[in-house]
Amino acid sequence: MINVAVLGASGRMGGNVVRAVEAADDLALVAALDMGDDIAVAAHAGAQVAVDFTVPSASEANVHALIDAGIHAVVGTSGWTPDAILRVEDHLKERPELGVLIAPNFALGAVLAMRLSAAASKYFESVEIIELHHPDKVDAPSGTAAHTAAGIAAARQAAGIGQSPDATTHDPDHARGALVDGVRVHAVRLRGLVAHEEILMGNPGEQFTIRHDSFDRASFMPGVLLGIRQVGLHSGLTVGLEHFMDL
């Protein structure tokens, strides 16, 4: 039995995590915390793993507090910067027995889409990403899209392939989207959406599209539970749920 605390328990994702943990035979919910609650509550309740689905402005501080409290962390909050990730990595050197997972996406299909797009991208001249989310999301581009772009860029660099061709010289309103690791990413915010991503790849005469759709936040729960069960077996910082999967 793994004792679990949920941070951001009253939010949309946090509420789903609470219900998923309560329904799992091998997990026990020992604390459900919200903004302003003391992380010490989770430690006093005997939490072994804490799941953070809060807000970008609070998530890093939460993770550092969890490390100080000796609690493994599974993080689904988006908006993590490279500097913030490095700070957590450095902090974990003081507690080598702990594991922290920061996952841009917990949907298993999204993880597979990211891995497949990285493998396929080196065979195509052009690659662009469209990410589509609900309008209540506070960050853009999404962590999923940024992680996808990073994987694609690394695969193409290793294969000696440059950036996608683009003759655009005049774009004052940034209609061409953001460049993330040299890959174009376009963010859509639309009422009725949950979390969706398309990776578009093109060669002369053909197009290859990989798309993943999360229609309900329940789609993230199998990945969250996988993270909870595995994070204690992986010391240090892990970025991406794919490292806990047999891919």
From TrEMBL:
Residues of the Dihydrodipicolinate reductase N-terminal domain: 2-106
Residues where (S)-2,3,4,5-tetrahydrodipicolinate binds: H134, G143, T144
Residues of the Dihydrodipicolinate reductase C-terminal domain: 109-243
Top EC group: oxidoreductase
Keywords linked to the UniProt accession: Amino-acid biosynthesis, Cytoplasm, Diaminopimelate biosynthesis, Lysine biosynthesis, NAD, NADP, Oxidoreductase
GO terms under cellular component: cytosol
EC code(s) of this entry: 1.17.1.8
Localization terms from the record: Cytoplasm
Family matches, as InterPro entries: DapB_C, DapB_N, DapB_N_CS, DHDPR_bac, NAD(P)-bd_dom_sf
Pathway as given in its UniProt record: Amino-acid biosynthesis; L-lysine biosynthesis via DAP pathway; (S)-tetrahydrodipicolinate from L-aspartate: step 4/4
NCBIfam families per the UniProt record, alphabetical: dapB
Reported function: Catalyzes the conversion of 4-hydroxy-tetrahydrodipicolinate (HTPA) to tetrahydrodipicolinate.
Family the UniProt entry places it in: Belongs to the DapB family.
PANTHER family cross-referenced by the UniProt entry: 4-HYDROXY-TETRAHYDRODIPICOLINATE REDUCTASE 1, CHLOROPLASTIC-RELATED (PTHR20836:SF0), DIHYDRODIPICOLINATE REDUCTASE (PTHR20836)
Oligomer status and interactors: Homotetramer.
Record's protein name: 4-hydroxy-tetrahydrodipicolinate reductase
Origin species: Demequina lutea
The organism's taxonomic lineage, starting at the top: Bacteria, Bacillati, Actinomycetota, Actinomycetes, Micrococcales
